[in-house]
Amino acid sequence: MADMNYDVLVIGGGPGGYVAAIRAAQLGLSTAVVERENLGGICLNWGCIPTKALLRSAEVLRNAKHAAEYGLVIQNPSFDLDKVVQRSRKVAGQLNGGVKHLLKKNKVAVIEGDAKLLGKGQVAVTKNGAAVGTFGAKNIIIATGARARTLPGLEDDGKLVWTYRKAMTPNTTPKSLLVIGSGAIGIEFASFYNELGAKVTVVEVMDRILPVEDEEISTFARKQFEKQGMGIITAAKAGNLRKGADNVTVAVEANGKTEDITVDRVILAVGIAPNTENLGLENTKVQTDRGHIKTNQWCQTEEPGVYAIGDVTGAPWLAHKASHEGVIAAEHIAGKHPHPLDVRNIPGCTYSHPQIASVGLTEKKAKEAGYDVRVGRFPFIGNGKAIALGEADGMVKTVFDAKTGELLGAHMVGAEVTELIQGYTVAKTMETTEKELMETVFPHPTLSEMMHESVLDAYGRAIHF
Ligand SMILES: Cc1cc2nc3c(=O)[nH]c(=O)nc-3n(C[C@H](O)[C@H](O)[C@H](O)COP(=O)(O)OP(=O)(O)OC[C@H]3O[C@@H](n4cnc5c(N)ncnc54)[C@H](O)[C@@H]3O)c2cc1C
Fold first, then answer.
1. Residues linked to residue 251 through DSSP beta bridges, in sequence order
2. What range does the record give for the signal peptide (predicted)?
């Protein structure tokens, strides 16, 4: 006998789970969320938000260091690491409280504890090993997310070798730091610590940093990071970690040679692992692929009435993808006809300095997919607002289908591009062509004018470059 029955029981209160729960409640379904740690999940507590708070502190510090370029006098700008971290934790705490409030407002029940599927629409919840109860649900949404991946020989210890949780709550600034992995998470931490004055080296196994981004963009970003003093070693393998009392030596193999690098701390940013253990999947027909739960376009698993969304279902591991899937799952449960998610229209952002943002196909991927492409580029140096801001390093690249004029992809590096990318995302979602983009009026002076110019450039019509 279940202690309580719901129309929808969501396991995990991250941006996938809490959004799914609110949407389900909006649609009149009785809904509960089970969360074992913090509402808001990794995103609000240990991911997207606290890292952006840290990066904002780094940005303010950088601006203060460059004050003289703006005619301002700020002597010896410095930082208090504890206060930087405290601010980041406070921001996370504020948003965690906000999610609590939203769930209450929408009459979503919150059950604290660890959920386990028992099969046949039953879920057992325990807290610290003690039973909280058994709950019945017509529909279950698994939104258990993911955690930092470690590799054999590359395990974190929370002291000398960090993953993201420790990396965002340091008690001292390392003088030297090795970041293993150059995806968005690795690059954001590299950028943060570099700004705080650490000697940062990034090691990437692929032949370029930010490997999912357009090649030109990652080359551009690499040059900027190197100009800021960051060391970057690509096509390289890190291994053989040897720990000293207060440092770590890592063997880095590149170009057929192995070099020992000794640093104060190491950050592992080598991907994430889905949270599927001890979830009771064996009591269901739910299938996994390399640990990630397999779903169809409506986020349904193989087990009738069981859905899965967000990081636990695989790439791209992004909060907005998780939330969007949450809405799709809730609406499908409610018998609505949601629009399936098109992965080509999901933007991706890296909030380093410079920022990187993109949506859709890279030039290479578009060519591999058989498109005859037209490519437009526009540099930040050609934009009045960028120069006025003192942010003249960057570029905007657009990729079009030469036959139809459809926008296939947009790729940017430079100041505020993470805010700009949404313009192209709307355009792409609406299957816009170059014609509409050229006819769109962009306000002056803004960085967004470069988005217009990049489109014009693809058709040989750029005005300001
Ligand atoms: C350092 C870092 C920076 C990031 N920055 C960005 C960014 O800028 N933009 C972006 O889009 N994404 C970013 N991400 C990724 C983003 O955090 C994830 O994509 C997002 O949190 C996934 O949401 P989710 O709901 O699928 O899972 P999660 O946020 O992981 O939430 C899952 C929740 O389920 C709970 N849970 C797990 N198992 C159980 C169980 N058995 N019972 C009860 N509860 C359970 C967990 O405690 C957790 O709260 C970042 C990630 C990291 C680590």
1. 239, 260
2. none
Distance 115 CA to ligand 1 centre (A): 16
Single pTM value for the model: 0.97
Q: Are 299 and 288 in contact (CB under 8 A)?
A: no
Over residues 73-123, the pLDDT tens digits come to 999 999 999 999 999 999 999 999 999 999 999 999 999 999 999 999 999
Residue 287, both tokens: 């299938």
Active site residue 452: no
Q: CA of 291: how far to CAs of 140, 143, 149, 274, 310, in Å?
A: 19, 14, 12, 6, 13
Closest Cα to atom 34 of ligand 1: 12
Mutate to test the pocket of ligand 1, among 38, 88, 144 (most ligand atoms within 8 A of CB): 144
Q: Is the CB of 325 under 6 A from ligand 1?
A: no
Q: Looking at ligand 1, which atom is closest to the CA of residue 147?
A: 30
Closest-CA residue, ligand 1 atom 17, reads: 43
The secondary structure of 365-431 as a DSSP string is HHHHTT--EEEEEEEGGG-HHHHHHT----EEEEEEETTT-BEEEEEEEETTHHHHHHHHHHHHHTT
CA angle 275, 99, 86 (to 5 degrees): 85
Can you tell me the distance from the alpha carbon of 369 to that of 390, in angstroms, rounded to the nearest whole number? 38
Ligand 1 centroid, distance to 107 Cα (angstroms): 23
Question: Is the per-residue pLDDT at 1 higher than 70?
Answer: no
Phi (first) and psi of residue 295, to 5 degrees: -140, 165
Helix (H, G, I), strand (E, B) or coil at 79: coil
Given a contact cutoff of 8 angstroms between Cβ atoms, the answer to whether 17 and 35 are in contact is: yes
* Cα end-to-end distance, the chain, whole Å: 71
Query: Which domains does the chain possess?
Result: 5-148+273-343 (3.50.50.60), 161-270 (3.50.50.60), 354-458 (3.30.390.30)
Positive or negative CA dihedral for 377, 380, 381, 385?
positive
Cα separation of 43 and 19, whole Å?
13
Residue 398 tokens read as 């657009």
Q: For 377-395, write each residue's pLDDT tens digit.
A: 999 999 999 999 999 999 9
